[in-house]
């Protein structure tokens, strides 16, 4: 794009944005001034998540944690509980750690430069550019999925947008185009164009404010862009969930502090290929949760459960079987339900809770789904 073209492109894009932008609670518009903490929070929530899903979570967060200091002072379990349902829980942990760093290293102020923002946990090049430009008016570029698609179409980029060389090219274009004046509005305008007009399947080129700058619509069918390299197929795994009930209460355990859904709570769950020590004889044995649910396979699971929690279960019944997709895994959840026959819960292995007393235990969506299918047993809530 020549300088003249770039100028006209930005002018048209900004004029359209100022007229058509959505009224989002973290956006500076009408009487609302920009709040860097709100920008940081919204950017953390919007990664991998739709705006409509984020809005109620955003409101709940700022009602509970009105300032960065409030968030920094919060307990991690409280943060995870409020985040519950939004998924990708690492974002919540990083946000919490970022709030602590802002309080301890930046005097409670969200940093204003890309360099300082990149020091915060969970903040990458895109988020740093978004916060610096939107919250502080710094001339910093952004490239997210929307911007990638818009640029691929505008500039007729045929190379796969997820190839490292193309990513570099897209960042160079973004850095070249971002203006000194109103960089935050300009960046939001680009992303808004991708979200509202230059959409993945049916771009609305007939109402597009930058239609006349677009090589994609002039020279090809823009819907065919962008091209992408095929992603690696997610790994298929099985999680075997055991809903163990005693006197109307169910057993819950906390997940390890590292890995998927770390520190969150769940019904006891046996993941792929757990090595267990059998009660009889002490020999080690491998448990495969994806094995067909034969009596022998169930007996092995009961042994695993007994080793881990010190409780002997009655014969289990299967209550659910569903699939949950994460970025890298397709997880099949098989839910077994059983009453505790005898035994004493080993110390620090879990807690007993009624199903209506779980508000303070953060849990993943598939674990909540597993509970929805439980058959209410005598004495249960
Ligand atoms: Fe996207 Fe169509 Fe606008 Fe080009 S003209 S930027 S393809 S919406």
Helix content: 40-55%
Average pLDDT taken over every residue? 91
Oligomeric state of shown chains = single chain
Radius of gyration: 25 Å
The helix-strand sequence is HHHHHHHHHHHHEEEEEEHEEEEH
In short:
The chain has 381 residues and is an alpha+beta fold. The chain is 41% helix and 16% strand.
Q: What does this entry look like structurally?
A:
There is one protein chain. This protein has 381 residues and is an alpha+beta fold. The protein has helices at 3-20, 36-46, 51-64, 68-73, 76-83, 90-105, 114-117, 125-136, 145-154, 164-177, 183-196, 215-219, 295-309, 365-372; strands at 235-246, 249-254, 265-266, 269-270, 274-277, 284-287, 311-313, 317-325, 329-343, 351-353. Helix content is 41%, strand content 16%. Strands 1, 2, 3, 4, 7, 8, 9 and 10 form an 8-stranded mixed β-sheet that branches. It binds iron/sulfur cluster (SF4). The site of iron/sulfur cluster has 15 residues, from helix 9 and helix 12. Iron/sulfur cluster binds next to helix 9 and helix 12.
